[in-house]
């Protein structure tokens, strides 16, 4: 493909120094904190953007305090409509790294590998003189589990503490490098049990400490480090005292768990393993999830204090992001894979002193494919070296406006296997509307302003006819531009005519 040739040429130029204008004497640092399967409503700064009813879907006042993450939003920009390209770990992370939709990365579903020709934003920064390090869960190197420090680094020069996949709760340092330190199960493999995990060995704490060590080691040179925390993903367990911090709350089942069958689209099929009813919605699980979020927030505080203590805070761009959400009982489902807000939206907060105005709110639809191009442009004005699907949205972050509301439409897609069939849904999304086209039924047109619970299909409403038609045309155009294999599915393309 042409974009691959352009990529190789541009990377060669960078390596040889032809693009020397990208190399500056004083470069800002980049710290990315990435969580896993993180429901946006568990963050105070996101609840502030919602109505009371939407902010507290598990009961009035049932919430986690997240002062450190909230401080990033107060001092930077918060994005209210940031979607995973596919709301599943591997595919969305592949887009986050490369700027491409999952079908073009080699990772259209979990446990596949990035193709060798993929270029990440880390590789661009490495060639610009940055010290790069990745610490935590990767999920882009196939079936390896845990898969410490894979041979293919994709620009992450220091990947000693990178592991491919798994959600272990207890890690230790050994003479041979980091290892899982958990009770052994019947299969002879380490379990996800907590064991003796404490403030040093619990995975979130352990990985945060390694991130601080990396930044301290490279504090006198530009660095880019990504801390990828495998929480608050299941299992919903956390070390003491966080395991009991939120056990006293009276968790209610979300309203949409009890919706009528007529309010349940056919594209929810394929997600039955995550189905939940009132009897399965346990306070213990929610308390564990909330506890994990609070522990993450406390570790974000550790990182921010380190930056301030080392006088690095004013020259470090800090990004808080996730790969997708977790429905946590909404729409009769746990986990992800679906285009509902709780599943598909990922938190995205960006703080960059003197560049991004404090308290900025961006109400514009964007996806994880937009992430690398936008981050590079904000950080140093660099361009991504290859032709990608993602957009450079840096102007929305860097403008002086404190509220940005853009009606651009982007798209996300359901999960597909590497060999087919095409995804069982695709969706055009803006900050207000969402057109979801599945394989078995009339499309769903959701108006998030009038129906934030996403239980009403406005597609057949005469007042929405033009909106539905316009979004279908836009979705077709976006699929064509991305060469998305959904175009090969007659059950989907029939709605474009």
**Which quaternary structure do these chains form?**
single chain
Uncertain runs are 12-24
**Biggest β-sheet, characterized?**
9 strands, mixed
* Amino-to-carboxy terminus distance: 29 Å
**How many strand segments?**
17
Strand coverage percent = 15-25%
Question: Looking across the biggest beta sheet, what order are the strands in?
Answer: 5-4-8-1-9-10-2-11-13
**CATH homologous superfamily annotation:** Alkaline Phosphatase, subunit A
Structural class: alpha/beta
H-E string: HEHHHEEHHEEEEHEHEHEEEHHEEEEEHH
Radius of gyration (CA) equals 22 Å
Describe the 3D structure.
The chain has 497 residues and is α/β, with parallel strands linked by helices. It has a single domain, classed as 3-Layer(aba) Sandwich (Alkaline Phosphatase, subunit A). 26% of the residues lie in helices and 15% in strands. The chain contains 13 helices and 17 strands. The strands form 4 sheets. Strands 5-4-8-1-9-10-2-11-13 form a 9-stranded mixed beta sheet, sandwiched between helices. Strands 14-15-16-17 form a 4-stranded antiparallel beta sheet, covered by helices on one side. It has a two-stranded parallel ribbon with strand order 3-12. A hairpin with a 2-residue loop joins strand 6 and strand 7. It is globular and about 65 Å long. The two termini are 29 Å apart. About 3% of the residues have low confidence.
